[in-house]
Design brief:
Blueprint: H1 2-17, E1 21-28, E2 39-42, E3 48-50, E4 56-61, E5 66-72, E6 79-84, E7 91-94, E8 111-115, E9 121-123, H2 127-130, H3 138-142, E10 148-149, E11 158-159, E12 167-171, E13 174-176, E14 198-204, E15 218-224, E16 232-238, E17 241-250, E18 253-263, H4 265-270, E19 277-295, E20 299-316, E21 325-343, E22 348-365, E23 368-388, E24 391-409, E25 415-434, E26 439-450, E27 455-466, E28 472-483, H5 487-490, E29 499-512, E30 515-532, E31 543-560, E32 567-581, E33 597-607, E34 612-621, E35 625-626, E36 637-638, E37 642-654, E38 657-664, E39 674-677, E40 689-692, E41 699-709
Length: 720
């Protein structure tokens, strides 16, 4: 009897061990279309099957209990179903399309990328030094893009009807407080930075990220190189000075330095300025930059520093003085920037950084003296979490502090002091959400608190992108932007509010086979702009936030580097309609720096037989508004159109030696930017005037560039 019982138990146990479950279901996409060829299997086993033409699958397994069913298919996100194996019947599995970082939609409204590794790049860092007329200045190169205006007597970035002070510059995410060299009135300035230290540029003409603030119009982001490719030394000998740079590498650590000396005295002796300017001491400067990098297994540390000392002594014509007006300037600028990024487990990263700047100006205007000193710093911490390739979250906080002191001493030795100390807190949060390869959105919020103005503001930002086909996409963006009034105002009056601008942007971009096309419609609504009742901001001016305005227009950009052999070119056009009631304006009017039409054409052609790259750049701007007190109305007249044809030629002596020549305004167009009128009328009741023109119609440049590197191939113009 016992034997029979044991036999029955054995049979039952064997049947249990070999019990089978049938797993069945159907695989479809998000629109319920069947997916053929999907792989379905139990994790950790060989039990599985593939879906048929109708998306159906079926297979048997002897596994029991809790199991994980894996469903995978190329171009779709892998899905996991966990549960008791007995319940895996008649499943309906919907697979989500995977996000392709190379071919999927991108968030590009209002932003131009310049980088060798960016799939939406419209410029390369090299373009900054090879664009005719730019002469190695990143600002001059960016002025060939739509949305910018060439204000030839200033040299800074003017974007979509905004003043130069409405564009902020950041290096590795940290604020640069004085990004331009100091200069005299109506004499163009240059950016302080060498383009060779940066791997890429992001230039926003509007609608920028919630991570950045205190800019009504635009932000320019400069990113230093993470890891240099090799050790090298660069030597420059130029008609206006010289420079030397070197990169040293120690394993995962590296240091890049460069220094330059500029002196326009020899140039002025050969090609003197002839238009209302006399140089007692032409512009002279010495500057340098350094970047130290240390790359860890999960971290990156960078330290950037730059210094500049410059001075000039100039006499300029003035309609209200019988003699030329003397202007003297000595500027010293020192800037430090450090950042540290660490990558944690589970796709978390933390970035922290700080920047600090000291800037002093000793200015002489005739017998008067102005001594100015500004100390500013920026502290920032940012965290990022990648939850998936569809969703990430960035959030952080930052603190800005600016201390400004100015002391004015007149001919009688009377002194007047002005200044301020402002601490500004900000917090931001932003998320990129990719719903599919065709649709994505960016949602952000920024909050700021100014101790100087005792004001708290919240600014929402949102951007949408839709990609209907493989090569083109549409983008839509909206955002509110706040900015503290500029130093020239708040040094006299702190009882003001932040100025405000709201941006609305519609963008279309097409990229294929070396061709890029972009067009963008935009509208900017200005509110709370600062007004005052004197010609210039003064200690006794009455200041209000009653100003307002708008800017609207269309930008068009086209670049083609493939259609014609050895030719790379781009063209841009901007239409701008803007009016403002600000400063001392009597009502809404178009400012002098905002012409209605701007056109740029840049060409670069490689001549193999001559071992040379030849470049031409043409810029056009329609007449700029100005106010003529002899005629009725305000800002009703316009200057003649602006024209500039520039030429450059880079000759490859050998692989690492380059001879470079350029000339701006090759045809010597007599450009007029504005008119200065006398303060008082003459005996006939008319106000005399003089044209404000460049110190010289054209500028010539000759340079010799020599690179010494281990591979004996690279040079400062790496595509030659």
């Amino acid at each position: 009897m016992k034997i029979i019982i044991n036999f029955i138990v054995l049979v039952l146990s064997t049947g249990y061990l070999f019990a089978q479950h049938t797993i069945t279901g159907k695989v479809t996409d998000a629109k319920n279309n069947p997916i053929k060829g999907a792989n379905i299997y139990l994790e950790g086993t060989y039990d599985g099957a593939s879906s048929d033409d109708n998306g159906r699958f079926s297979f048997e397994t002897t596994e029991e209990g809790l199991q994980t069913l894996v469903i995978s298919m190329l171009s779709y996100e892998t899905q996991y179903e966990a549960g008791d194996v007995s319940y895996f019947k008649d499943l309906h599995i919907k697979l989500m399309e995977s996000i392709n970082s190379l071919s999927g939609v991108t968030l590009t409204a209002g932003t131009f990328e310049a980088g060798d590794n960016s799939k939406v790049s419209v410029l390369k860092p090299l373009d900054i030094v090879t664009t005719a007329g730019a002469a190695g200045d990143f600002v001059a190169a960016l002025q060939t893009l739509p949305g910018t205006t060439t204000v030839n007597e200033d040299g800074r970035l003017f974007v979509r009807g905004g003043t130069a002070g409405e564009t902020q510059v950041f290096v590795d995410g940290l604020r640069v407080f004085q990004p331009y060299n100091a200069t005299a009135n109506n004499t163009p300035t240059r950016g302080r930075f060498s383009p060779f230290l940066f791997k890429g540029i992001s230039f926003s003409t509007g609608g920028y990220s919630a991570e950045y603030g205190q800019a009504l119009s635009s932000v320019l982001l400069l990113n230093t190189t993470d890891v240099p490719l090799q050790e090298k030394t660069d030597i420059s000998i130029m008609s206006v000075g010289g420079g030397v740079g070197h990169t040293e590498i120690w394993g995962d650590r590296s240091l890049s330095i460069n220094t330059s000396y500029v002196n326009l005295a020899p140039y002025e002796a050969l090609v003197p300025s002839t238009q209302g300017v006399r140089w007692n001491s032409p512009y002279e400067s010495i500057s340098g930059e350094a970047v130290f990098r240390s790359k860890g297994e999960k971290s990156m540390f960078k330290l950037y520093t730059g210094f500049n000392h410059s001075n000039l002594d100039i006499e300029q014509e003035d309609i209200n003085f019988d003699e030329y007006v003397r202007f003297q300037l000595k500027n010293n600028n020192l800037y430090f920037n450090t950042s540290y990024k660490y990558y944690f487990e589970n796709d978390w990263s933390l970035t922290s950084g700080a920047s600090i700047a000291w800037d002093t100006n000793d200015i002489g205007i005739q017998e008067d003296r102005v001594d100015g000193k500004e100390t500013s710093y920026h502290l920032k911490v940012k965290a990022r979490k990648n939850f998936s390739n569809r969703f990430d979250l960035r959030f952080g906080a930052e603190y800005f502090n600016t201390n400004y002191d100015e002391n004015y001493i007149d001919l009688n030795n009377d002194q007047f002091y002005s200044g301020y100390d402002d601490g500004l807190w900000a917090a931001f949060a932003e998320s990129d959400i990719f719903l599919s390869n065709k649709f994505a959105m960016k949602i952000g919020l920024r909050a700021t608190q100014s101790s100087l103005l005792d004001e708290f503001e919240v600014a929402p930002r949102v951007s949408l992108a839709y990609k209907p086909g493989e090569d083109g996409q549409f983008s839509l963006a909206y955002g509110d932007f706040f900015q503290r009034p500029l130093t020239e105002v708040v040094k006299f009056d702190q009882n003001l509010q932040m100025e405000k601008a709201s941006h609305y942007i519609l963008n279309y971009q097409y990229i294929k086979n070396g061709k890029t096309f972009r067009t963008e419609l935009y509208y900017k609504d200005y509110d709370r702009l600062v007004k005052y009742d004197t010609d210039m901001p003064q200690f006794n001016s009455n200041y209000t936030n009653l100003g307002d305005g708008y800017a609207k227009g269309i930008d068009i950009f086209w670049r083609d580097s493939k259609s014609i052999g050895n030719l790379d070119y781009w063209a841009s056009y901007s239409y701008l309609d803007t009016e403002r009631n600000y400063k001392n304006f009597s009502g809404r009017a178009t400012p002098n720096f905002a012409p209605k039409h701007n056109v740029s054409l840049v060409t670069k052609y490689w001549v193999d037989k001559l071992r040379s790259q030849v470049g031409l750049s043409y810029s056009y701007g329609s007449g700029r508004p100005y106010n003529n007190p002899n005629n009725p109305g305000f800002m009703q007249e316009k200057t003649k159109s602006y024209n500039n044809l520039s030429f450059n030629w880079a000759y490859l002596i050998d692989q690492q030696k380059i001879l470079y020549f350029s000339v701006s305004n090759l045809l010597s167009f007599n450009n007029v930017s504005n008119y200065q009128y006398a303060d008082n009328p003459d005996s006939g009741g008319s106000f005399d005037r003089r044209a404000i023109t460049p110190p010289a119609d054209s500028f010539f440049f000759i340079g010799f560039f020599w690179t010494i590197s281990s591979d004996r191939k690279s040079n400062q113009l790496d595509n030659l």
